[in-house]
Amino acid sequence: MSTPPPSATEDASVPPPPPARPGPPQAAGRPGPRPAPWVRTRLRAARLGSVLAAVLAFVAVLLAAALPRAQDRGADQALRAFLQRGGPGYTSLLTTSPRPQQAQGTDALDATRTTLLAHTGDSFHVDPGTVVYGTWTVKGRGLLNPELSAPSGLPPVMRLLYVRNARAHVRLVEGQWPNDAPAAGTAPGTARGAADDGPPLRIALSQRTARTIGARLGSVLTTSSVPGGGPRAEVVGLYTVADESEDFWVDLGCLAFACEYHQGENSFWGADALVGAADLPRLDGWSFTAEDFWRLPVDTGRLRADRLGATEQDIASYITGPVSAELVTQTGREMLRTNSRLPELFAQARARSQAAAPLAAIGPAGVAGVALVVLCLAGALAADRRESELRLLLARGGSRTGIVGRLLAEGAVTVLPAAAAATALAVLTLPTPRLAASLLCAAAVALLALLAFPVRAAFLLSPPRPAARWRRPVAELLVLAAAGAAVWEVRRRGVAPAGSGTDPLLIAAPLLLALCGGLLLARVLPLVTGGLARMAGRSRGLVGFLGLVRAARGPGGRGAGTPVRGRTGPSVLPLIALLLAVTTGGFGAAVLASVDAGRLAAAHRTIGGDAGVSAVGAGSLPDALVKSAARLPGVRTSVPVWTDDDSFVQGTAEGRTRVTLVVAEPAAYAELSRGLGCGTFDPALLGVGGTGSADAPVPVLFSSGLARKAGPGTYALRPGPGGELHVRTAAVTGCTPAPSGPGGETVVLPAGPATALIRGGVQPNRWLALGPVDGERLRALTRTARSGAKPADERYVVRTSAEYVAELGADPLQGSAERLFWSCVAAAAGFALLAVLLTLLRTVPERAALLARLRTMGLRRRQGVALILAEALPQTLAAALGGALAAAAAVALLGPAMDLSTLVGASAPTGVRLSAAAVLTPALGLAALVAAAVLLEAATSGRRQITTELRAGDQR
Questions:
Q1: Which of 113, 141, 131 is nearest to 287 (CA)?
Q2: How far apart are CA 184 and CA 77, in angstroms?
Q3: Distance (Å, rounded) from C-alpha 823 to C-alpha 63?
Q4: N or C: which terminus of the chain has fewer CB atoms within 10 Å of its end residue's CB?
Q5: Distances, alpha carbon 213 to alpha carbons 162, 173, 192, 924, in Å
């Protein structure tokens, strides 16, 4: 009921209520104090955790954004270096057309150039300033002046060229330049083919060319012995070329210097000369085959590997496609033709990229797997640390959706700015035109870092479900089935063919094998460590027993204040992280080791040993040079040999087989063959090289291919210099150190009296050696040898296997793939180490409480550190061993399907060889790194944690 208002008759003695206490003035309608914002409060309460989460997201997103850009940059640089290796002659579009019927000047050349350039610039670009064009005579004419040089009685041959802007690339030293004004008595519209009716063509000749062929300023060069019977040319100027290696002179013949041509055993000079624009109409009269040309160098510095397909299509269209037909119509030249070697080079570049793709992709795939595990572990650690708080919020009326939303807001404040900064840093530091892949990878990793904690929290806050024991076995069987299917498919069909992109199965198979190894270790490790714990329990010490028991039982608490819910065994995620890092590192290291072995084998096949000296042509090596080379430091085996590539064996299945004849001392040659892995043979089987009689068969060594063609019996061996020997097969070898010639088959003849039957005798023309021989010292030794008038560099060729291997390994494609792989291995190792440390942090409260209790019972500091090591190291060592086994399994199962010829740089046997050093090095290195990190963490943080627990008391 309501209270009536006081009336005037009420008791006046009732005191009035006290006045209100004065306070600050309050604006009308202003709300009361608000609660503190959730996100700001939580971030202030856990500043260190927020900073660490931001740092982890920054590193993960930075790697995710940087790896695609690094791959793109490496692929682009490798493509450009490969194309530029052949020079502009290989990367140019050469367009030619017969000269128009009506004589035309330079305007027609300029107009056609403009039309050709108008159809470039889409996927390939041509710099207008680099275009070289003009008119040339396809064939040359012999110069019959008696004063000219004719080495073998053959006269010099001269072509004439008009090259636009040629004067800008030369320096006139004598006379004058053939100008564009017509000569006296010659009209600009002179008909084609009239070069012999008017005055001589005015030409400019290179000073070197003039000196070589014997011409001089003012010489009138004739092309017919009959006066007036052929065109003539007058040398009106001599020039020198400023830079003979300039790209301008590519494909322009012998304008810079005279060229030496060979016709059988005879030689003659080729000399090209420049004419002025005024003589363009008369070039057809010089050889009747003059044509206009335009060389368009494609700017390889702008080509991109990801657009190689589009570039290849545009180039093909320019050569023989719709663009080519359109150019014919627009220029009015029906016989306009374009040629280029770019399509062939593009096909080779695509094959090289495809061969290097597995090595370039296995590293990033391993990093992605390990990073995924680390982010999941970080989310689980954060959720376990705050589980009590989250359950309290749920008990006080908070909804699970609202709590997860607030956690998402917390993560967005820390993760998204770090991800944006990391992406921007990757884009700025690794500039490349391709951006989509980098942004997509960065967004995926940022989303994973953002959702890991809220998803784990949502799982913890979900109502408990009845345990389903079948889920884990089914998941493990599915992973095992996927790994088996991937391995079987790769072995069945091999690596994906060139042009089809990166083979996903070849990349996924090692990771699936590592995942299977991690799941198997998670099953086996508790049993093994439990057995070791029982064995340690029988000893007097307590530290080893406690550590092994804890390692076998796994983490038992979810947070600092959460009671133990039971032991479930070691965590699977750290095992998988370590196994992924070790497996990818071991598999990639095995591939690189096989590549190095393939390069060394290719060097041995090419050189015939670790070092070799060959005489050029029909020369021989002086005895003093052979003896001095054998005394060089590092030489273990020295073998002088005589080889001939034009020998034949009569009486084989083919009737006559071309072979490489090798004459060497049997014992030394057998040692060289054994040292190079070419097989062994008993040098005693070759005897002493025969008796010197033409009828007595000489025991020789046949290559395996020749032995199949020949079979047992006696054959006639006819060396290239002449003579004949009867030989019989004493032994067969799979390969021989001395490089074989065009026939591919080899016959090794023992040095001895039988070599006297070879016409001209046998003097060593090749020296082969085993050992780390210094190539520069060997070259310095050949320079001191006096034989002939030619310099030593022209008489002897010195090669070493170390230099050859370095040459093969200088390919930018191989170097880029190797650098990217080792960078990914280092990143994967860092993430794996972080996974182990996160696992240790997850058990910090429980471990600190245990150590505090044991400390009160007399546990010493060193024993506490030993306890932590005994708990953490079994998992690390098991993961290292399991990763090494998984890597070995990946090499054995997947290695035979990989062709390493492109990575080697030469022909190599298909397959990856299993190398113990390559597989164990990453495993042992990562195990040592993790052990050192665990020891450091135990030594630095264990003391502080124990002191804190002892001061606060056990609240659990």
A1: 141
A2: 56
A3: 10
A4: N
A5: 21, 18, 29, 70
Answer positive or negative: Cα dihedral of 842, 848, 853, 859. Answer: positive
- Using CA atoms, how far apart are residues 540 and 534, in angstroms rounded to an integer? 12
Distance (Å, rounded) from C-alpha 58 to C-alpha 314? 41
Task: State residue 826 phi and psi, 5-degree precision.
Answer: -65, -40
The 3-state DSSP class for residue 730 equals: strand
Taking the C-alpha atoms of residue 583 and residue 578, their distance in angstroms, rounded to an integer, is: 8
Q: Which two tokens stand for residue 486?
A: 């991937």
662 close to 749: Cβ distance less than 8 angstroms: yes
Q: Could you give the CA distance from residue 525 to residue 575 in angstroms, rounded to a whole number?
A: 10
SS3 857: coil
Residue (of 140, 161, 147) closest to 273 by Cα position: 161
Distance between CA 822 and CA 581 in Å, rounded? 12
Lookup result for tokens 């290796």: 85
Which region, left, alpha or beta, applies to residue 690 given φ > 0 means left and ψ of -120 to 50 means alpha? left
Beta bridge partners of 747: 661, 702
Amino acid identity, residue 397?
G
Q: What is the pLDDT of residues 904-940, one digit of tens each?
A: 877 777 778 888 888 888 888 888 888 888 777 777 6
Range from 243-247, 291-295, 476-480, 712-716 that averages highest in pLDDT: 291-295
Say whether pLDDT at 604 is over 70. yes
Is residue 571 helix, strand or coil?
coil
Nearest partner of 136 among 105, 96, 171, 100, judged by Cα? 96
Report the length, in residues, of the chain: 956
E strands, 298-350, are 337-339
C-alpha span between 767 and 782 (Å, rounded): 12
Please tell me the predicted confidence (pLDDT) of residue 421: 95
**Helices H, strands E: what count in the chain?**
26, 21
Query: Higher confidence at residue 735 or residue 949?
Result: 735
Number of Cβ within 10 Å of residue 81's Cβ equals 16
Q: Contacts by 115-123 with C-beta closer than 8 Å and gap 24+?
A: 115/327, 115/330, 115/331, 116/294, 116/296, 116/327, 116/331, 117/296, 119/318, 119/323, 119/326, 119/327, 120/296, 120/318, 122/310, 122/314, 123/307, 123/310, 123/311, 123/313, 123/314
SS3 at position 234: strand
Q: Which amino acid is at 206?
A: S
- pTM recorded for the entire structure: 0.77
Q: Using DSSP bridges, classify how beta strands 656-664 and 746-750 pair: parallel, antiparallel or unpaired.
A: parallel
Alpha carbons within 13 A on the beta-carbon side of 196: 16
- As a whole number of angstroms, the distance between CA 555 and CA 571 comes to 8
- How do beta strands 337-339 and 92-98 pair? antiparallel
Residue pair 836/934 in contact by the 8 Å Cβ criterion: yes
Determine contact, residues 782/868, Cβ cutoff 8 Å.
no
CB count within 10 Å of CB 924 equals 15
DSSP 362-420: HHHHHHHHHHHHHHHHHHHHHHHHTHHHHHHHHHTT--HHHHHHHHHHHHHHHHHHHHH
Q: What is the pLDDT of residues 336-353, one digit of tens each?
A: 999 999 999 998 888 888
Query: What's the CA gap between 611 and 600, in Å, rounded?
Result: 12
Separation of alpha carbons 907 and 900, rounded Å: 8
Q: What is the pLDDT of residues 504-546, one digit of tens each?
A: 777 888 888 888 888 888 888 888 888 888 887 777 777 777 7
Please name the helix (run of DSSP H) or strand (run of DSSP E) that holds residue 450, with its range, or none. helix 436-461
C-beta neighbour count of 475 within 10 angstroms: 11
**Cβ-contact 929, 833 below 8 angstroms:** yes
Per-residue DSSP letter, 805: H
Q: What angle do CA 619, 706, 798 make, to 5 degrees?
A: 30
Element housing 472 (H / E):
helix 471-493
Task: Fill in the amino acid letter for 582.
Answer: V
Handedness of CA 871, 876, 877, 882 (dihedral sign): positive
Q: Which range in 151-165, 252-266, 378-392 is most confidently predicted, on average pLDDT? A: 151-165
State the Cα–Cα distance between residues 787 and 798, nearest whole angstrom.
Answer: 16
